[in-house]
Amino acid sequence: MQSLQDRVVVLTGAAGGIGRGVALGLAAAGAKVVLNDIGVSLAGEGGDASAVEALAADIRASGGQAVANRDSVAGAASAARIVQNALDQFGRIDAVINNAGNLRDRFFFNMSEAEWREVIDVHLHGSFFVSRAAAPHFREQRSGAYVHMTSTSGLIGNFGQANYSAAKLGVVALSKSIALDMARYGVRSNCIAPFAWSRMTDSIPANTPEELARVEKLKRMGAEKIAPMAVFLASDAAREVNAQIFGVRANEIFLFSQPRPVRSVHRSEGWTPESIAEVAMPAMQHEFYALERSPDVVNWDPI
């Protein structure tokens, strides 16, 4: 089904893993795709354009329309060039899928300023800059779709990823703000938390039997499984879907909750530190969330 026939989609982080699967899914759905990837490693090393160029060539050879782009998402000017590339090549833009990512895993107490900033720049700033560049065009045509990749590292938590977790939870808040600000123009914004084996998950440490078992499970979750949800959210079939957070894990689709009050306590005379300790906390503690990581919460076998 050509659900994106003649629609123009910008996809960042397109060259490998989840990005490649989404790119092929978009092309199969009839989209004209700007494939953005700077061609560096997760650590920011290298600069090889061959993978994204080859992907664009493969799509064109199969009868699709695609162009490769190597501008960085991490700067406003370069992100604007990505969107302009879509306009120059295809005359319009209909959807943005923010998938570009990197990792600088380190325990919080050892994390450097550079490791913090480099991850925030790509995931959070990059999602903002590319989305912001597309916004005037979406407003003018009174249509458009944003799809942002978040992570359960931000939604739930994980070891050694303060930078990545903060960025990915920030992406959720960014998506909600975009949805609120752009709904009047017929523009929607949603998030996907993908579970898939890719370059990002390939860096997960596997030093214990439990970690090895987790990695083996992840290896069975193909990156191509994320594509159908991304294609759906970019298409008109999702016109009534806005400001949501979905998870995709092999053949499972999740809808994630969003923060809402779960319990309140009231004291007519107000609170003191002592009464908070004696009354408020005991009343609320049964609703406290445990100190859990993503694999502690999503702990069942999807296969």
From TrEMBL:
<dbReference type="InterPro" id="IPR002347">
    <property type="entry name" value="SDR_fam"/>
</dbReference>
<protein>
    <submittedName>
        <fullName>SDR family oxidoreductase</fullName>
    </submittedName>
</protein>
<dbReference type="InterPro" id="IPR051687">
    <property type="entry name" value="Peroxisomal_Beta-Oxidation"/>
</dbReference>
<dbReference type="InterPro" id="IPR036291">
    <property type="entry name" value="NAD(P)-bd_dom_sf"/>
</dbReference>
<feature type="domain" description="Ketoreductase">
    <location>
        <begin position="7"/>
        <end position="203"/>
    </location>
</feature>
<dbReference type="InterPro" id="IPR020904">
    <property type="entry name" value="Sc_DH/Rdtase_CS"/>
</dbReference>
<dbReference type="Pfam" id="PF13561">
    <property type="entry name" value="adh_short_C2"/>
</dbReference>
<dbReference type="InterPro" id="IPR057326">
    <property type="entry name" value="KR_dom"/>
</dbReference>
